[in-house]
Amino acid sequence: MAAAATGLNRFYITLGVVALVAVGALVYLVRRPKGVSIPANVAVLVADTAGFRGYVLGSDSAAVEVSEYADYQCPACQYFETIQFPAVRDQLIATGKVRWRYRDFPLEMHPNARVAAHAAACGEEQGKYWELHAKIYEGQAQWSPSRNASGMFSEMAGALGMDRNRFDTCMSSAKYAGRIQASLEEGTRLGVGSTPTFLIGGRLYPGVLASDSLRAMVEQAIPPRTP
Amino acid sequence: MGLALLSLAGLFISIYLYLFKIGKIGTLACGTGACELVQLSPQSRFLGVEVALIGVLGYATLLGLALLALQPRFAGRSWPAQLLAVLSGVAVLFSAYLTALELFVIHAICRYCVASAVLIVVIFLLAIRELRPRREAPGLA
Q1: Which end of chain B is flanked by fewer CB atoms within 10 Å, N or C?
Q2: What are the pLDDT digits (tens) for A34-75?
C-alpha cells in the first residue's frame, strides 16, 4: 500500500514537472516578439476581389495602363522600385500618360513576401498604401531575413503616422490573404512566371525594364490621335 | 498513468493552437504554413466554437478523469474508466471528422492536428484496455 502511494507521488511529481516545462514554453511563446504569417493557397472568396483589381496610381483617363506583377522580397523588384520607378512616376504617371496598377505576385521562395504584401494592404486601409509600399521596398535588406518582418512593418507604419494598433490588428487577422492569393492566381493565368513582369498593351514583359525602355513602349502603345 | 500523461500532452497542444487563434502567438512553429492555413480556415470553428478550444476542454476533462481514476478510493470502481473510454471514443470520431476536413476540404495537413489525432487514438486504446477486468495477484484474494 505504502509502495503504491510512493509510486503515485512520484508520478504526480513527474506530471507536475512536465506541466511546468510546458507552461514555461507557452509563456515564452506568448512573450516573444510576434511574427505574423499570412497563409498561402487560401480559398479566394468573392469578397476578396470585389471591386479590387490592384493598387492603382495615375489618372483614370490615361491612355495606357501598365500592370506590374511584383514580389516585395524580390531583389529585382526592389531595384525597379527604387531606381527606375521614380522616373516612371514623374515622366509617365504624373503626366497622365500611364495608369499604373500594382499586383502582388509573392513567390514561394520568399517567405516574407506575403507578409509584406499584407502589410501594404493594411497600409491601404489607413490611406498610406504607396508610402508604405515604398518604405517596404527601401527596407527590403533589413526585413527580408528577419523572423519578425511584421514587427518591422509595424514600425514603418508607425513612422508614417499610421495607427499601429489598428495596423497590428489588421496584420493578425490575415484578412487580405485571399486578395493576395487572387492577385497571384490572376498573374499565373496570364502567364506571369517571374517577377517583376509588366503587362503593357496586352503583352507581358518579364524582367526589370529601364524607365527609358518603358517610356518607349508606352509611347508605342498610345493610340494615335485622329485629326 | 499513461492516460494522464497523454491527456496532458494533448491539452498543451490544444492550448498552443488556441493561443494562436486568439492572437497571443504570432506564428505557429510549423514550417510549411499548412498549420496556419488549417487554423485560419472556416472549418477551424465547429458550431461557432473554436475547435482548439474544444480540444482544450476535452483534454482537460480526460486529464481530470485519468487523475481521478488513479486515486486509491476509485481503485475498485469502473465508471471512471468507462467514462474515459466513451469520451475518448467520441473524441476519436471528432478527430476523424476533422482529419477528413483537412484532407478533402482544406487540402492541408496541420502537424499539430495529426499529433492530436494520434494522441486521442492511443488514449482511446489505453482506456479500452483499462476496461478489461484485471487479474488479481495470487495470494491477495
Answers
A1: C
A2: 667 777 777 777 777 777 889 999 999 999 999 999 999 999
Long-range pairs for B125-133: beta carbons < 8 A, 24 or more residues apart:
B126/B2, B126/B3, B126/B6, B127/B3, B127/B81, B127/B84, B127/B85, B127/B88, B127/B89, B128/B85, B130/B3, B130/B69, B130/B81, B130/B84, B130/B85, B131/B78, B131/B81, B131/B82, B131/B85
* Eight-state DSSP code of residue B137: P
ipTM score: 0.71
Q: Taking the model in full, what pTM does it have?
A: 0.58
The verdict on B68 touching A (C-beta cutoff 8 Å) is: no
The verdict on B15 touching A (C-beta cutoff 8 Å) is: yes
Query: Using the beta-carbon criterion (under 8 Å), do B70 and A8 form an inter-chain contact?
Result: yes
Q: B2 to chain A: which residues are within 8 Å by CB?
A: none
Domain boundaries, chain A: 1-31, 46-221
